Amino acid sequence: MSVHPVAVELDAWIDPSQAFLQWAGRHEHCFWLDGEATESGGWSWVGIGSPADPADVLAVPLEPRAAPDWRAGRFRGGWVGWLGYEVGAAAAGAPVHPDATEAPSSLWLRASQWYAFDHARRRVFFVDDADFAAHGAIPGPRLSAGETHPVPPTRSVPAVARHEADEYAALIERCRAHIREGDAYQLCLTTRFSVAGPPVDPLAVYLRLRAGSPAPFGALICSGDVALLSASPERFLDVEGSLVRTSPIKGTRRRSPDPTEDAALAADLVGDEKERAENLMIVDLMRNDLSRVCEPGSIAVEELFAVHSYRQVHQLVSTVSGTLRPGIRVADLLAATFPAGSMTGAPKLSAMTILHRLEGAPRGVFSGCLGWIGDDGGLDLAMIIRSIVSHPGGAYVGAGGGITWRSVPAAEVAEVALKARGPLAALGAVLPDGW
Question: Which residue out of 86, 234, 359, 412 is catalytically annotated?
């Protein structure tokens, strides 16, 4: 693809789901970065690509580069994909379990064509290399309105838990013992819920997921017989110009249909001493991580203990930013920050080492990151949480929570169940007994 692709605006709005159903989803390697649920209206990108060498992606310099006039959103061409947890943990020097075989731990698609959707202004662009504009071709494949994707009725299949609820509660107590001994301040303990069976229909499941759990970092990325379906609410890294931001989430409460109770739940979240302490620990960790690649004195906490509300949960969110030093590449930024502190705990290396022993199995794609990395030196990556990994043998959902000395095991078990319930429901699965 050309270094400077050309975007042509379409005459009328089409829905991103139609672009995926009638075009992108018919290709072996395709993506839907679904930003419709963002507070600002957001951008979505639906496109196709080809597998890329992760080394090429990591070598991209994160320096602003001149680009022609561009109206089709921040993604001007580059790569779409994911990076799994073990890749980052191993690079950071932590022990890791052998790579999970269900899905690639690192997968990036070089985008070749895509639709760009501006939800706030109801504008659509089709992007390709410069040749299609020169030849006067109609931009993009012809799509017909109204076609729907058959969504089979949901089943009610019990998922299989990696840890039973009482076993997970016992692991929480072991986390607290490590914290008492001074081995860590906080530990993000995770588990997995698996659903065996024939491969799922990624689009049908994603449509159920986004309907039940709309999120600002929704995504469907397919490559061959594996797919990642995301309803993530958490931004990991955003680079625009020389500014980098991270927005860790620590602290969760359920939503209530009763407005008074819902407001009380949000107030309880922001006032909870344990949740604030957990959030603050990760803010400090991310300030330290970003300082390794940012200009001295540029690190700032833009937002602290803010409640962000989604359909199923309230979340406690903070935002840390900094100015990148010249010469920083994607590899350098990830080496400083990945895996994200919100998915490890603090201190990071000690936390990952402890969690390796306690969890007893690989996390795989879960708790890694997904999104786009641009030719122009920008990127936008989200945490892989509230997500589904589909593979030939079925699918899995990861979930976890931050453990501090003040953690109450029963409450932490309930939080994990709350986080896993939405993705499992999209799969037509339910939590196993005890959860």
Answer: 234
